[in-house]
Amino acid sequence: MGGCLVSRLVVVSNRVATPKAAQAGGLASAMLAALSEVGGLWFGWSGKAVAGDPGPPKEETDGRITFLTTDLSKTDFEDYYNGFANRSLWPLLHFRPDLVDYSKQNYQGYQRVNRHFARTLAPHLRDGDTIWVQDFHLIPLAGLLREMGIAGRMGFFLHTPLPPPDIMRVLPGHRALMDALTEYDLVGLHTNAYVRAFVNYQRDLAGGQKLPDGWVRTGSGRLVRVLALPISVDPDAIASQAAKAVNNPSVKRLRAGLTAEDRIRLAVGVDRLDYSKGLPERFEAFGRFLDRSPQHRGLVSLLQIAPTSREDVPAYIELRGQLEQQAGAVNGRYSDPSWTPIRYVNRTYPQSTLFGFYRAACMGLVTPLRDGMNLVAKEFVAAQDPDDPGVLVLSTFAGAADEMDEAVFINPYDIDGMADAMARALDMDLPERRRRWSALMARLKRWDITTWRRAFLAALEEPPSPEVLRSTGVM
Ligand code: ADQ
Known about the structure:
Elements: E1 8-15, H1 26-38, E2 40-50, E3 58-62, E4 65-73, H2 74-93, H3 104-121, E5 129-134, H4 141-147, E6 154-157, H5 165-168, H6 174-181, E7 186-189, H7 192-205, E8 209-210, E9 215-217, E10 223-228, H8 235-245, H9 249-258, E11 265-270, H10 279-292, E12 300-305, H11 314-334, E13 342-345, H12 351-360, E14 363-366, H13 375-382, E15 391-395, E16 408-410, H14 415-427, H15 430-446, H16 449-461, H17 466-472
Parallel strand pairs: 1-2, 1-5, 2-4, 5-6, 6-7, 7-10, 11-12, 11-14, 12-13, 14-15, 15-16
Antiparallel strand pairs: 3-4, 8-9, 9-10
Helix pairs in contact: 1-16, 2-3, 3-4, 8-12, 8-13, 9-12, 10-11, 10-14
The protein binds adenosine-5'-diphosphate-glucose (ADQ).
Adenosine-5'-diphosphate-glucose is lined by residues 25-27, 159-160, 231, 270, 272, 305, 307, 348-349, 351, 354, 371-376, 379.
C-alpha cells in the first residue's frame, strides 16, 4: 500500500449507522465521512437479537460505502453485550471495580461474538484494507483476524477511559484483554493519562517497554503505537444548527415556559442515564446551591435530559429511581406555582434540538465521575451565542477537561464545591464569559472531528521511524 493514503477503509463497531438510521451522531458522521472519502465497508451488529442462529450478514451499498451487518443470537447478545461489555468492562474502565460483575459465561460470550465478527468479516476483506475498530466491545478482533491470516493495518480507538494497571488487575483475564490490544498497529486513546495507563500496564504487568514517539515494544517483541488523539465535534456545523434551532418548536416551548416572566434562566445537562455521569451528585449539588443561594431561587431552572440506557442492567434501573426521588425532593422543597427547579426528562431529542437547548442555556453542567471524553461539553461550547455565551461547568474527571482549560472546573465528589461553582458560573460577567468562550471555541476549531479522524488514519499508516527500529534492535 505505502504512502499516507488509505486504500480502502473498513470500520468495525458494535453498532452501524446504516443509511436508514434516523440520525447519525458525531462519531457516526465522522466514520461516514472517512468511509466516503476513500470508499469502504462498515461492519457491525444489526441491532437485532434473534432466537436461534443468526443467518448470513446483510449487505447494503450506498454510494461508496457498503454496510455489512450481522444479527446476534439472544444468548450471544445477553452474554456479550449486557453481560461482559456492560456489566464487567464498562464499570472497570470507569474506575468502578465495586460494580464489576464478572462471570466466565459472559466472558466466553464476548470471545464468541468477537470470533463471529471475525469470521463474518474476513471473507469481505481485501488485501491492503485498513481496518479501524471502535471501542471496548471489540478489543479481541484484531488478534482473531490475524489468526485467520489477515495482514492489513489495524487500528483501534477506545472511547472510554483506560484505568491504571491496579484497576485493570481487578478483571479476571485482564492480561489476555490487554495483550489483545497490542495486536493492533495503533491504539488511540482520548488523553495522555490513558496513554500512561497503557504504557504502565505494559511495563509493570506484561514485560513491555516504552519506545520513542508513542511506540511500545510488547513482552513478545511486537511493536504497537499508542497515542492520545482526543475525539472532537464539528463546531461550525453545531454553531449553525444551534442558531437555527432557536425557531425549533421544542426550543421555543422551552423558552416560553421558562421565561413567562422573562426572568428564569436555564441550566442544562444532557447525558445518557449512566452511573458514570455523576447525575445524583449533580442533583444534590443543584439542591445545595439553592439552599445556599437564596438570591437565585425562582430564577434558575435545571433542565436535565437523560434518556434511559442499558435497562437490562440492574445498576441502571436503580439509578433511574434514585434520580426521580432526588428531583422530586428538590422540587418539593423549592417549587412555586411559576417555577420548577429541576425538569428531569427521560427521552432523546434530535441533536439539532439539543443544540438549541444548549444555546438557550446560561450554564452547561457536565459533571461525570468518569468519562472517556464527553462530547456534550464540546457541543455545549460550540452551540453558544458568541455575543452572550453560557458558562461550561466541567468535571476534572472528564477527558474533555484536558483540553478545556477555560471551563469552570468542579470535583463531582465535592458537593459544596460544585454548588459554589454553579453560583460562580451564573454570576460571571459578560467580558469573562466571552473571554473564556472564545478560547474554548478557538481550540475546538483547531482540533475538530475531521482533524481527529484524519490524524488517526495518518498515524495508522505511519511505519515506525528508524530511531524506533534501532531501539528495538531491528536495525
Ligand atoms: P457517551 O457515554 O455516550 O459516549 P458523550 O460523549 O457525552 O457520552 O456522547 C453522547 C452523545 O449523545 C452526544 O453527542 C450527545 O449530544 C448525544 N446525546 C446525549 N443525550 C441525548 C439525548 N437525550 N438525545 C439525543 N442525543 C443525546 C462515549 C464515551 C464518551 C466519549 C464518547 C465519544 O463514554 O466519554 O466522549 O463515547 O468518544
